[in-house]
Amino acid sequence: MTATHPFIDQALGLAAQALFLSSPNPRVGCVLVAADGRSLLGQGFTQQAGGPHAEVMALRDAAARGADVRGATAYVTLEPCAHQGRTGPCCDALVQAGIGRVVACMADPNPLVAGQGFARLRAAGVEVEVGPGAAAARALNIGFFQRMERGTPWVRLKVAASLDGATALANGASQWITSAAARADGQAWRARACTILTGIGTVLADDPRLDVRDIDTPRQPRLAIVDSQLRTPLQARLFSVAQREVLIYTAAAASHPAWQALQAQGATLVSLPGSSGQVDLPAMLRDLGARGTNELHVEAGSLLNGALLAQGLVDEVLAYLAPLLLGSGARPMAHWGPLQALTEGAHLQFHAVERIGPDLRLLLRAAGSQPS
Predict the structure, then answer these.
(1) Continuous segment of H or E residues that includes residue 125
(2) Rounded-to-integer distance, Cα 352 and Cα 100, Å
(3) Is omega for the bond preceding 358 within 30 degrees of 0, making it cis?
(4) What 3 state SS string does 7-18 have?
(5) Nearest partner of 242 among 220, 263, 260, judged by Cα
(6) Which of the four pLDDT bands, split at 50, 70 and 90, describes residue 4?
(7) β-sheet with 29-33: strand ranges across
(8) Is the pLDDT of residue 31 over 70?
(9) pLDDT tens digit string along 73-93?
C-alpha cells in the first residue's frame, strides 16, 4: 500500500483503520499539514455510517491541538464529498476552515460526488492535486468502487480445504482442516465485509452463527441466506446474534407457511425466483448492492459456490489450503457441471499468496475483475 508521498502514506494508513468501521461508506483517511510542508496539524479517518468523515475528524483533531489550519494542505485518500447525506459536504468544511490545498488519491465514483467536490474546492480558490496513491486507495475500497460503478458488491468466495481441494470428508467431518491461525485470519476477512452470504445447505448441516468473533469490531456484518424453499429452522443459531440484520433470499412467495414465522424471528425475506425453482443469483447481487453491500463474503457449501462460479458472479476467491490430503469421497470446494471442455472452467489469476501458520492463503481474481 505504498504511495508516492509520506503524507499520502500516512493518510492511507489512517484509512486502513476504518476497515471494519465505515461500511457502507468508503474507508478514507485525512492528514492536515501546515503550509511549511512539515508540521502535522491534525489527522482522522471515517467513522461509522452517520458519523463524521475523515476530513471532519482531521479538522476536529487540529482544533483539539489548537492548530491554525488556514493555508494548510489536506492529504486525503478520496475526493471530499460534495453532497448532503447523514453528514454535511466535506469539501465545504475544508473551504470554511481555510484549507489552501487538497491532495487526493482519486475521485469519488459516487454519482452524487464524481468530481463535484474537486470543482467546488477549485471554485473557492483551493488548489487541488489528484493522483498520488490511487491504486492503494482503490484497493482499500474495492467493494465501494464495484457498487458505485456496477451496482453490485465485490463477491469474495472463501473456502478452507485440503491440498486436494476437499472441504470435508464424505461423512461431513470438517473441523478442523485448516489451522487456528487460518481461522483467525478468516475472521478478519469476515469483519471487513458488509454482508456474509451462505446457503441453506450450510445452515442445515452445521447450524453456524456466521458472526465475527475474536475481532475488535463495532458492528456485525449483515447475514444473507440463499434458501429457495424456506427451510431455515426457526431455532437456528444464526438468529442468536444480537443487532444483526438477517436477509433470506427465496424463490417462495409470501404465502409460504414459513414466511411469517421467519419474519417473526427478525428476518427480512426477499422473493427472487429464478429458473428451476432456485433463487435468481444475479438479481440477489443487485438487491444486495441496493442495500449498501460493498463487499460480500461468501462462506457456503459446494453447491452455492458452484452456482456462483458457474454464473461468473465471483470476483475473488480467498482459499486457505492445509498441507493435508483427504483422498476419494471428500467434498469439493465447488460443484457444478459436468463440463465438456477445460475452457468452460472458472479461470482465475493469482493475486497474492501468503503463509498463514502451517497453511497457505491464496487470493485469486476472476478475469475482468477490477484492478487494484
Answers:
(1) none
(2) 40
(3) no
(4) HHHHHHHHHHCC
(5) 220
(6) low
(7) 40-45, 29-33, 73-76, 101-104, 127-130
(8) yes
(9) 999 999 998 876 667 789 999
In terms of pTM, does the model score above 0.90?
A: yes
**Nine-digit cell at 164?**
486436494
Strand order in the sheet with 154-162: 267-271, 246-250, 222-226, 195-199, 295-298, 154-162, 316-322, 359-366, 348-356
CA separation for the pair 8, 105 (Å, rounded):
8
Please choose, from the candidates 285, 273, 281, the residue with its C-alpha nearest in 3D space to the C-alpha of residue 304: 281
Task: Tell whether the model's pLDDT for residue 2 goes beyond 50.
Answer: no
State the amino acid at position 183 in one-letter form: R
Give CA–CA dist 331/308, Å, rounded: 17
Kind of pairing, strands 40-45 and 29-33?
A: antiparallel
At 47-75, the pLDDT tens digits run 998 889 999 999 999 999 999 999 999 99
Which of the residues 55, 79, 295, 316 is marked catalytic? 55
55 belongs to the catalytic site = yes
For residue 278, how many other CB atoms are within 10 A of its CB?
15
Of residues 175 and 349, more confidence is placed in 349
Q: How far apart are CA 287 and CA 283, in angstroms?
A: 6
280 closest CA partner among 250, 253, 310, 247? 250
